[in-house]
Write a structure and sequence with these properties.
By secondary structure, the chain is α+β, with helices and mostly antiparallel strands. The chain contains 4 helices and 8 strands, in the order βααβββαβαβββ. It holds the Pfam family Acetyltransf_1.
């Protein structure tokens, strides 16, 4: 398997992988992502050279974005205040590669890239109801920040998100 920056040529396959992830999450009752998010953000992530992928030959196995800021960053009490964090966004694993340790592997890759980019901690947000992701982050050594970020999606839906971080 190869870990690399995503390129424009990867966008169509990336969107297909994420649509399958969204459909799978919906079947499990996790209505967190939709037709717009995260698919509509992937092109901008590629342009900004912050979207990383893991491939198995020509197949995209997983992806994530590393961002310098996050909308909910100031809503929580982080253990590493005053640092230079990077934020892990849009971590997704191809549904045909689940239960193979790919999520843990991608977290390790994200930490390595964040170190290279000069960050001293890696942070992320996860929706309260996404218990599998929360277990993965805790198993991987990330620590939950204090507080909850409530992200208003529209007049009906507000997502409650927890922050997790790890010192690099």
């Amino acid at each position: 398997m190869e870990f690399r920056l995503a390129q424009k040529a990867d966008l169509q396959q990336l969107q297909s992988v994420y649509r399958e992830i969204v459909q799978n999450m919906n079947r499990q009752g996790l209505t967190i992502w939709d037709d717009i998010y995260p698919c509509e953000f992937l092109g901008a992530d590629i342009e900004a050279q912050r979207l990383f992928i893991l491939t198995n030959q020509e197949t995209i196995v997983a992806a994530f974005a590393l961002c310098r800021e996050s909308a909910g960053a100031n809503a929580l009490y982080w253990k590493t205040e005053g640092t230079q964090p990077l934020y892990l966004d849009r971590l997704g694993v191809n549904i045909h590669y689940t239960r193979q340790g790919i999520g843990s592997r991608m977290l390790a890759y994200a930490q390595n890239v964040a170190r290279i980019w000069g960050a001293d901690c890696l942070r992320l947000f996860v929706v309260e109801s996404n218990l599998a992701a929360r277990r993965l982050y805790e198993k991987s050594g990330l620590v939950q920040a204090t507080g909850v970020y409530e992200e208003a999606i529209d007049s009906i839906c507000t997502l409650r998100e927890y922050g997790y971080e790890i010192i690099l």
